[in-house]
Structure formats: C-alpha cells, structure tokens
Amino acid sequence: MWYRTFRTLGYTICRPYATCATKAERFVKTIDPSTLPRGYLVSSTYAGIKNAIRPVTSTNEPSAATTNVPHPQEAPKPDVALIVSSVPAAIAGTFTTNVFKAAPVVHATTALKAAGPNARVRAILTNSGCANAVTGQQGLEDTQTLVNRVQALLSPRNQNAIPTYEQDARSSSTDVLMMSTGVIGVRLPVAHIQRCLEHLAAPSILQSHPDAWLEAARAYMTTDTFPKIRTRQFILGNRRCSIVGIDKGAGMIHPRMTRSGGQLHATLLGVFATDAPISSATLQRCLDEAVRVSFNCISVDGDMSTNDTILALANGQAPFVDLDCTDTPNEWTETEHPDMVNKFAEELKSLCIEMSHLIVRDGEGAEKFVQVHVRNAGTYEQAHAIASSISTSALVKCAMHGEDANWGRILCSAGYASLPASTPAWTLDPSKVNVTFLPPPHQPDDLAPLPTLVNGVPQAVNETQAKKLLSYEDIYVDVDLQGGSWGSQGRSEATYWTCDFSKEYITVRW
Amino acid sequence: MWYRTFRTLGYTICRPYATCATKAERFVKTIDPSTLPRGYLVSSTYAGIKNAIRPVTSTNEPSAATTNVPHPQEAPKPDVALIVSSVPAAIAGTFTTNVFKAAPVVHATTALKAAGPNARVRAILTNSGCANAVTGQQGLEDTQTLVNRVQALLSPRNQNAIPTYEQDARSSSTDVLMMSTGVIGVRLPVAHIQRCLEHLAAPSILQSHPDAWLEAARAYMTTDTFPKIRTRQFILGNRRCSIVGIDKGAGMIHPRMTRSGGQLHATLLGVFATDAPISSATLQRCLDEAVRVSFNCISVDGDMSTNDTILALANGQAPFVDLDCTDTPNEWTETEHPDMVNKFAEELKSLCIEMSHLIVRDGEGAEKFVQVHVRNAGTYEQAHAIASSISTSALVKCAMHGEDANWGRILCSAGYASLPASTPAWTLDPSKVNVTFLPPPHQPDDLAPLPTLVNGVPQAVNETQAKKLLSYEDIYVDVDLQGGSWGSQGRSEATYWTCDFSKEYITVRW
User: Fold this and answer.
1) Could you tell me the CATH number of the domain that includes residue B488?
2) Averaged pLDDT, B244-261
3) What domain count does chain B have?
4) How distant is the Cα of A114 from the closest Cα of chain B, in angstroms?
5) What average pLDDT does chain B have?
6) Which residues of this UniProt protein bind substrate (chains A, B)?
7) Inter-chain contact A56–B461, Cβ cutoff 8 Å?
8) CA of A36: how far to CAs of A7, A43, A263, B371, in Å?
9) Does the annotation count B267 as an active-site position?
C-alpha cells in the first residue's frame, strides 16, 4: 500500500540530524484505521491545477505549460481533496487576519457568520496549486460555483449521493466550505476542478481507508516534503472518540516560475475532523484555544499568508463503548458537559500542537527545530510577544543554524519585542533574565542544562557541552524573566516553535 | 594620502551591480577639507580591543588570542576615536529603545537628562570591538572611568590641553559622552583604551584634516566594508555652516568566533558634528525629525541593537560670510529664528538620509538597495508600519534578491502590518491598492514604470521590462493605497529602505 512505502524509522529526537533519513521517512507514520473518526469519507485526485494556470504575463514561453507535467510513469500528486461527513457536522474555523483575504477565506467566514452558532457542514473541498487570492469578485464567484456543485452532488435528491447521508433539518446552504493554497493573483481553473467533482463525490470513490486519508493529505501539499496527518483516540463518557488532523506547511507553490510572473505563496491549511458530539459554538471555543497555543505559536519565515485557515468538524458519530447505555446527549456543550468538553479540548490542543510542529519541521530549508519557552512574564500576551520576537529574529535563526549558543541575540530580540499593554504596566528587568539551553528530552548523552545568562550576568560556558547541545536537531531555549517588574506576580509563560535560517531557504525562496 | 587610495568611480546608480567595483571603491568619497565644520579636532588609534577581550568561556584555545592580529606590515584598523569640539557644543541624541541598553547608552541618556536643555559636550569617545552591553554596574563604571579620563585630559587645568579650548560657564561634568559597538556580554578592556587616551587627546595628534576624519570613520567600523563619512555645507544668514556625519552599519564584530562563546552583535552608531549655532533643545528637535525619516526607516535584518546611538553636536564656530557684519546671535532657536532652523533641519535630514542609505548598501550580504514608498495611507505612522512590514519580510527580501517582481509578497506583507490606531480608524482597502516598480532615476534605458497591481487587480507584466527593471542594483517599489478607507483624506506617505536577503547573509551570520 502506498502509505506503507514510507519507512517509519522510530525517529529519535536526539540523534544528530546529519545522520538522519529524509523528513518523509522520519515523519510519515502509518495510520491505524481504528483510530480514524467514524462517519467521514475522503477522496482526492489530480486535476492538473498547476498546469492549468498561467501567471499573468505578456509572453508565454512554450515550455511553461509542460514544466510541471510529471513523468508518464509517475502518478501525479493529487491536488484536489474532498472530505465528506455522513451527517452534517458541527463546524468551527480560524482564519488569517491578513487584510488581503483570499476568496475561499472570505467565502468561509461569510458563510459561517450567516449560519450562526448552529452552523453545519457536510464537506470540505480543498485544492492546492492555486490560492484564489487577489482575484476579486470573480474569485468569490469561482469558489461559490465549486461549492454549489459539491452541494448538488451530495444532495439526497442526487440519486448517486453517498448512501450514508442523512437529511438534517439544521443543515443550511452554507454546508460546503473550500480551502485553497498555491499561486496568488491567478484565477482558479474552475473547469479543471469542476470536471473532477463528480468523480470525487461518487460513493465508489469516497473511502474511509487510511490510504484515502493519506492521499488527501498529499493533495494539500505544495512545497511540503511530506504529507502531514495524525490521529488521536480517547474515551469520553460512553463514547470512543477520534480526531484526525491534516495540515500543510508554508511552501512555495511554483518552484519553476520564481522569476517575475510567478507569484509564490506560502499558506497554512489544516482540517481537524472528529466524531465526538460537540456543538459548533463549543467546538469553536476549543479550536480557538488550541490554535492560540499551537498554530499561532509557530514561525517559519515570519510572513502571514492571505489564505491561512484551520477548520474543525464534529459529526457526533463516535461509537458507544457500552452498547447497553446509549443515552448520551446529542451534543456536548461547555455549560452542560464541562468535563467532556475540557477533555476533548485537551486532546484537540495536543493534536494541534503536534500538527503545528510538523509544519516547522518541514519549514523551507529547515535543519533545526527550535523551542523557545518564555517564563514568568506579566501576561500570556507579553510572554507570547517576547517568544515571537526571539523566534522570528533572523540573527537568532542564523545562530541556531550555526549551532551557536548565542544568548546575546536572544536577549537582544527579547529586548525589542513590542509588548502588549497590561494593567499595571509590566516591563522586562534586565537584571533578572536567565537564558538556558536545555537538553532535548530522552537524549542519550545525559547532558545538563546550559545556563548562559543568570540574573542578567553572562556565564562561563562549557564549550564542549555547548557544542554537543547545539548539535542536536532539536534545540530548547528557556528564557526565565523571573517576573520582571511584577516580581513574584509575573508568572505567565508562552512557548513558540521555529526553525533555523539556512542558505537552502534563500535558494527555495528565490 | 590614505583616503585617496580609494578610487572614486563616479558610481552610476543604474549600472547592473554585477559589473561594479567593490563597495569601498564606489562609496568612499574624497572629503573636501573646506566642507568640514570649524572648531572640531579628531584623532583615532588602534587599542587592540578585539584581541584584548575574550568571550566568557571555560576553555581558551591557544589560537584565539592571535586570530585578529593583523599582518605585521599591515596597519591595524583603528578601534578608538575621539572627536573634540574647541568650545563646549550643544548636544542632542537618539538612542535604542531596546530594553537591554548598553552601558554607554545608559550613561549618555542619564547624563543628558541630568544636564537638561542646555547640555553641552566637549568630546565624543567611540570604540569598536566591544559593545560594553550586558555588563551591569561594572560596565557603567568602566564607561565613567574612560569619560572621566578624557575630561581630565581636555581640562584647561591640564597644561597639555588643546590650545583652542575655551572655558565656558555652561559646561558641566557631563561633557564627554561615549559610544561603543562590538561584542556583547564582555567587559570593556579599560586599561587598553585608557593607555591610548593621552595620545588621542594630545594637541599634536588631534587634527582637523580629512585624513583624520576618515581614520575616525574607520575606527567606527566593525564588519562594515567601508568607512562612512559625508559632509554638507550651506549658507545660513551670515554664516557658512558645515555638517560632517560619520556612521557605521549593522555588522558582526567577531567573524572568527561565531560558534558558541562568540557573542556577535550589530549596532548602528552615528555622529553629526556641525559648526552652526543651534541651541541644544532645537538641535534635539531637528535630530528627532531627521532620524524619524532616515535611520528609523532602514532595515538590514530587522534586529534592533542594544547600542544604537546617534549624537549631534553644534559648536557655533561657523565662519561669518560678511566679516563686517558679525552680530549674529549666539544660538539659533526655533521660536526666534525659524527660517534658519528650518533650513538647518532640512540639511541635517538630507545628510541623515544619505548616511542611512550607506548602511543599507553595506548591509551584510546585500546586493540590492530597495526603496519602498508607501503613499496615501491614513497617518504617517500607518504608512511607516506598512513600509516597515514590506521591508522586513524575508519573502520580499528573497524576491528582490532573485530579481522577481513579486507583487504578491509585497501585498501579503502589507496586509499583515500591525497598524497603529488612528481616529477615525483607518484600514487598507484591497480594491484600491496599486503596486508599481519604478525605474531608478537617471537610468539610461528609458524604462517606463511597471504597474503590477492596479486597483487590486493583477496586471499583465511585460517580462522583458520586468527583467530589466529588477536587474538594477537599486529597486524602487511604489505602493499607492489611494487613501484606503479614508478615501481622499488618506494622504500620508512614508519611505523605507532595505536590502535583499542573500546566501551571503546566512554565511556572515553563522
């Protein structure tokens, strides 16, 4: 089977990266079919989007159209995926705050707003290759055309519709959403995608098998070097609940057209589908919190996309553990089932963090995975701002690439962070700052933490230990502000994840 | 003479950079002695600071101490410079807003605050090689020790003091300031610097010759590839006024010790000395405005240093044009001499802009000089925030390096700029944005502007023209927001200057 052709090497976090296998070999894991959520079917195919679109140019080089055609004997990577819930699912979403929102983002946010707290969706259509961004009114119409077509195909009036579909009074016309990633400023090749939709929505094509999920994850990929998919399973009350997460990392979509005319674009897309019975409003709050400490805490190059979207679906199809007792309520809400919701929120958060790390690990040119933990700040927002400033500093990222325990650059970037206001005002106290490099968990060398700055005073550094610590692929930086101007009242912390800046990044991003 | 050994090639801005001479050959210009301000003397020498300091390590490699010793036949670059005014000069300063301010920054800001609006200085002592940052109370004491020593040497009670010195009742004990740049977290080698001071302050060593000024500019350099010095001369009323500016660009100070232990650091230092008669308070306002639109509008790598300092001195020694009419007031102030002050402010601003550009051109690994002009925003601060966001985007900087007219990345980075609030609120309107690449001034190819986005709609791009425009060393990006949500009321503009991101940057910053 395709997904088994990746060797799962049992990646050891503390092995020096230079000796490791490819990222695909290390980070693609076999999916246990029993951990996939119930009531979802997926399909994906190759629509030829990259070849269909041309950048807006006045000259067309003859070779441009054929550049991305794969070798005849090589199956092209799928670029369209459909995820269908057998019943209308509760839906939640978080979207880019970029002013220039792509058409699918505008469509989804408008649809969710119109649908209100009981919003339901039946399907998520995703394409890679074209972001449908900066495409104006035409872009919105293109998204709507495709969404309408999927809705019609999944409608119970369509005699070919998937048999498990159940009519639900709550479902509305907003029940298909779309996500796009790829080249911006170019119209979506609607005809190319449209002619795949009947195939994608056919009952014989929609599958619940791990192969189908992995292929869907591949359809999301742009310059990602591996498909990103993980599952979680847990017992909640009398239900065995599962979540599957797919995401894709920041990546250049048009590697052969990087010169003028090719509009490269990086986007974060993610979808989390669960069979837990959660209301839309509750799911939204769980997702907000999960994204706040996962996807909103990663950085590859500091550039926020026009298309960033994370969607979560909950269809309530989780099986009962004790079949004699099936009187679980239809949907859990925070007020009525706080324990269930809290446990679900923790599981979703944990999965979001794991999935966000995969994006950092697959960051363009990334050779290091760096965790920046800022402790004992005034507020979470202040700790987050400082961790973000450190994690996006080009100088820090170059130092990590060079395996240099450079506390000076860390301190400097912490010092110019733009701090959100708080009452009372909170400030960093230079004489209280500790910067320590921590050994990665489970490292075999039994290294001790390496303090480089204690109470604002530079420390004598054991060069041998520093060299060893920084040679790991995973670097853990601990910044303890000891409460700053609030003293013992300053106890907030935030964790950020970033990668290093390598020459490879410049090459990829030319 | 040393400064004439650089060929001044009459740099043509539109020549493709690949065919150009070195940056030193292109950007070091001969100084006309008659354009230097009156009443200033300078000296510089090699104190061996880089060799004197050792990073805080537990192991000392034998080779470390000798790494930076120059070839015996090669004169070492000076690393200490003294600029002395023959009379106490009005003083103004702008300093880094980084929380972790270096000792000389704390010393200077404290001294200027204590001295009040009539602050006067006699001398500026500058060293490169050691930033005296993150050195705590000891660092402050070290700065004070050196400042005290220079004061004693320049005191009229010292019989060797320079003969032109005139006692001034207004001068106070705060009349020597210091600037430092280099390695951080390491104590200043006070003894090494101190033993040079008598030499530096000796009347036979202090000079007003262009050679002496150029050597002082060299003393400021860290990884700068050329000394940065320019002059301005202009008639104000009955006075022929001059300004000389020296600055140094962001640079790694310890290229041989970039691995753990070496704490690399980038700093912007600048000094502007004029013989115009300007009061300290007025000089401060002129400097604030000049820095706001020059040094605060450049970016090399987006990292703000702990040592950034710009100082301005005005000693009132400008010669009279008409010697029969010498009744000019002692000092010009904004309220009493607005025309004089406005003209002076324009000259200072123009010089600051020129000097700030030299830093961008000498940016580490920089091969392109990029001007980002944002027009028709709500407020200056909003235009500045958008221009800054575009100029610090790694993706935009990579695109400029790759000579890619990538309006998508420009738009995207404009879209996530963190906008300062205004009343009423102002927002970007995606349907009004124009992005145009402009031909550099005086380019011989007579190229037309290249609109890539008009009213938010991507334009067909003439590939040949785009290729030509982007092949220039200087790239001009014009972003017209057409007033955004304020319509015709949105008329503010800001200009930012940045460089590209090259593989060379990663190499330098390892």
Assistant:
1) 3.10.20.340
2) 51
3) 2
4) 23
5) 84
6) 222, 248, 267, 364
7) yes
8) 21, 15, 36, 52
9) yes
Contact residues for B423 (Cβ-Cβ < 8 A; gap 6+): none
Chain B residues touching residue A381 (CB < 8 angstroms): none
Based on the domain organization, do A337 and A449 belong to the same domain? Answer: no
Q: A208 with A330, same domain?
A: yes
**Which candidate in B267, B274, B306, B309 is catalytic?**
B267
Among A189, A198, A157, CA closest to A49: A189
Domain range for A403 is 369-509
A84-105 in b/e burial notation, b at 16+ Cβ within 10 A? Answer: bbbbbbbbbbbbbebbbbbbbb
Domain boundary among A311, A341, A362: A362
Same domain, B118 and B196: yes
CA distance B363 to B295: 13
Q: Which B positions 87-106 lie with beta carbon below 8 A of chain A? A: 97-100
Q: Which of residues 126-185 of B touch A (CB under 8 A)?
A: 133-134, 136, 184-185
**Average pLDDT of the residues of chain A:** 84
CA nearest to A417 within chain B: B98
* Test mutation, A59, A63, A96, A99, chain B, max B CBs within 10 A: A99
Q: Which chain A residue has its CA at the smallest distance from B411's CA?
A: A100
pTM of the model: 0.86
B111 touches chain A (CB under 8 A): no
DSSP string, A317-356: -PPBSSTT-----SSB-TTT-HHHHHHHHHHHHHHHHHHH
Instruction: Look at residues A98, A191, A178 and name the one whose alpha carbon lies nearest to residue A144.
Output: A178
Same domain, A392 and A341: no
Whether A264 and chain B come into contact, CB under 8 Å, resolves to yes
Q: How confident is the model at residue A4 (pLDDT cuts 50, 70, 90)?
A: very low
Q: What is the pLDDT of residue A302?
A: 75
Q: How far is A301 from chain B (nearest CA, A)?
A: 6
Which residues in A119-238 belong to E strands, given as ranges?
Answer: 120-130, 176-183, 228-236
Sign of the torsion formed by the C-alpha atoms of A129, A132, A134 and A139: positive
Spatial contact of A313 and A91, defined as CB atoms under 8 Å apart: yes
Residue in B211, B360, B342, B201 with CA at minimum distance from that of residue B285:
B342
Residue among A260, A386, A457 with most chain B CBs within 10 A, to mutate: A260
Q: Is the CB of residue A56 less than 8 Å away from at least one CB of chain B?
A: yes
pLDDT tens per residue, range B49-83: 988 986 543 333 333 333 344 445 567 899 999 99
Nearest to B100 among A186, A399, A411 (CB): A411
In tens, the pLDDT along A111-120 reads 999 988 889 9
The helix/strand/coil state of A242 is strand
Residues B413 and B456 in one domain: yes
As for the ipTM of the complex, it is: 0.84
One domain, residues B345 and B264: yes
**Amino acid identity at B254:** H
The Cα–Cα gap between B383 and B374 comes to 6
d(CA A487, CA B72): 54
Note the pLDDT tens digit of each residue in B111-126.
Answer: 999 988 889 999 999 9
E-only strand ranges, B315-368 = none
Assess whether B312 and B409 both reside in one domain: no
- Count of C-beta atoms within a 10 Å radius of residue B72: 5
Q: What is the rounded CA–CA span in Å between residue A398 and residue A205?
A: 47
Kind and range of the H or E run holding A210? helix A210-220
**Pairing between β-strand A434-438 and β-strand A474-480 as defined by DSSP bridges:** antiparallel
Q: Which of A99, A462, A502 sits opposite B415 (nearest CB)?
A: A99
Same domain, A354 and A386: no
**Cα separation of A268 and A265, whole Å?**
10
Q: What is the CATH number of the domain that holds B224?
A: 3.60.70.12
Strands A120-130 and A80-95: antiparallel
